[in-house]
Design a protein that fits this description.
Elements lengths: L7 H11 L20 E2 L2 E2 L4 H8 L3 E2 L14 E3 L6 E2 L2 E2 L2 E7 L2 E10 L1 H15 L3 E3 L2 E6 L2 E8 L4 E8 L2
Antiparallel strand pairs: 1-2, 3-4, 4-7, 5-6, 7-8, 8-12, 9-10, 10-11, 11-12
């Protein structure tokens, strides 16, 4: 991954949009119809940082690239060899958030309406129709949420997978 993609503005938007989850008002898939994600790109949600590194190799901290208060990014990592697509959508970055040393959130940053459309189409194929609430579109389960959120002013959008435990 090109580390210059983690600009101060992008990091700020990434973490601000992460605050949108959990969102219990979003669509809940019909019981038994679709299960919540248990992993993202080979990393199971809930895995320890050490276990994740053993599975995928390099996970680099975002904090050294962050502006200002680096403590805000102390639990955020990226994979230097990340595939910069989500289905047919081009993505800007993927952040892996480890809370209490366990993977609890994945934040994907996208730019441009065509990429948001393609990501949303892929999510609908996987989870069925979601629910639109303002600039957010997503799904919730008892202990998991998937939210696609737009920042109309910044032109960026985030796809946020959150384990609610």
């Amino acid at each position: 991954m090109n580390t210059t993609l983690f600009t101060p503005r992008l990091l700020f938007v990434l973490l601000c949009l992460a605050a949108l989850a959990p969102l219990p008002v979003l669509a809940q898939p019909q019981p038994g119809s679709v299960s919540a994600p248990v992993e993202f790109r080979g990393l199971p949600f809930g895995i320890s940082l050490e276990g994740a590194r053993n599975l995928v190799g390099s996970l680099e901290p975002v904090a050294p690239l962050a502006p200002g208060n680096k403590d805000r990014f102390k639990d955020v990592y990226y994979r230097p060899d990340e595939d910069m697509t989500f289905g047919s959508a081009a993505i800007l970055s993927v952040g892996y958030v480890f809370r209490d040393d366990h993977l609890r959130q994945v934040i994907i940053t996208l730019s441009g309406e065509p990429n948001v459309f393609l990501a949303k189409e892929r999510l609908i194929q996987r989870f069925g129709p979601g629910r639109q609430v303002g600039v957010r579109y997503g799904w919730t389960w008892a202990d998991f949420s998937v939210v696609l959120a737009s920042d109309p002013e910044g032109g960026l959008s985030s796809l946020i997978y959150t384990q609610e435990k």
